[in-house]
Design a protein that fits this description.
alpha/beta; Rossmann fold; six-stranded mixed sheet; three-stranded antiparallel sheet; 3 helices; 9 strands; about 25% helix
Length: about 170
């Protein structure tokens, strides 16, 4: 039997969510002249790029993009960034990912910044599923979605076929 997919967000709705999240991020950082958005690859980085573009459009604030790659299967934090983490010193960082489920990925992402003195660290997710195993919450959320643990959320952010499905 094929997986039944239910469309949760279409391309237009995703764009609206990102715009709203951008305004919320700006409101939370009105006094800042620069922000860093750190996206966890793959879809988290795509979300970060879109937030960066939209934030610059609505606010004019300088937004630096950082790419974080994580080894989620490791029992120790193994992460790489495309710019030095030290560049975030005394700055506001927004950590972005596509879906917040157990909190594990965001917890690893937060670990990247543990030894760096930041002005503020916030999290942004497109979909918040609320099945926490780790004490992680989203500061900026596109959609809070009540699901059962067996359901899976697929986020597709490729530009042409942007969509969020529940299966």
């Amino acid at each position: 039997m094929p997986d039944k997919k239910i469309l949760i967000l279409d391309k237009k709705q995703i764009r609206q969510k990102i715009t709203r999240m951008s305004y919320q991020i700006w409101e939370d950082n009105l006094e800042e002249s620069e922000l860093i958005i750190a996206g966890i690859i793959d879809s988290g980085y795509t979300l970060a790029k879109r937030l960066q573009k939209e934030l610059q459009r609505v606010s004019g604030i300088k937004v630096t993009l950082m790419k974080i790659s994580l080894d989620k299967d490791s029992s120790h934090l193994k992460a790489d960034t495309d710019i030095p983490v030290e560049n975030c010193t005394n700055k506001v960082v927004i950590l972005a990912d596509d879906v917040l489920n157990s909190g594990r990925t965001l917890a690893y992402g937060l670990g990247v910044f543990l030894n760096t003195p930041l002005k503020k660290l916030r999290t942004a997710v497109l979909v918040n599923r609320s099945h926490r195993k780790f004490p992680i919450s989203a500061d900026f959320t596109g959609l809070d979605l009540a699901t059962i643990i067996k359901e899976h959320v697929d986020v597709i952010l490729d530009g042409d076929e942007d969509a969020v499905y529940l299966r």
